[in-house]
Amino acid sequence: xxxxxxKAVVLxxxxxxxxxxxxxxxxxxFDCHALSFDYGQRHRFELEAARRVAASQGAAxxxxxxxDLRAFGGSALTNDIDVPKxxxxxxxxxxxxxxxxxxxxxxxxxxxxxxxxxxxAGDIFIGANAIDYSGYPDCRPAFIKAYxxxxxxxxxxGVQGRHITxxxxxxxxxxxxxxxxxxxxxxxxxLTHSCYDPGEDGRPCGHCDSCLLRAxxxxxxxxxxxxxxxxx
Length: 232
Hints:
alpha/beta; Rossmann fold; five-stranded parallel sheet; 5 strands; 37% helix; globular
């Protein structure tokens, strides 16, 4: 009798990084249980993108969790605050920008941890990146390491001796390297969404930090962003 593949929980926003992370987890032999969040973000088009990505990559399950972080605000993504635009290339990543959502990855990982315990998954994948990122403190290796230590102390699974691992396969890759890795794995980036401030039809603004990082990544990877064909 064939042995079942191990299960993994994969945080899936619908963006470029999380789509690549899902593909990597699947390529490593995991049955991927994708987890997405409707947290009151202004760029809710990413949720439809997450559904498309999960379906295209054959996720074993895809759950959408409602958490309204607008109750706290404090971010341009969850409050009526303008999304910064047109930062010069060297300025992205300087300081913590207003698009930082307070404790977002801590919250998301906590849900992934609970979900993993229920389905027996000791592996959690997150597309955190410490190279081409926008200054978010919860995308740093030190945070991931500390969270993993906490997870193994705070859960039944960890206490009973089954180690919980937080996987960050993109943590030290540039955006171009992430795109190149994803293309080799067959990721359809035309299904993804990255913009923080899209139009009503989902058209990327082309000027927020996320759009600028995405455009630079495709340019440096020597590839064409398929969204340019969808939104010429």
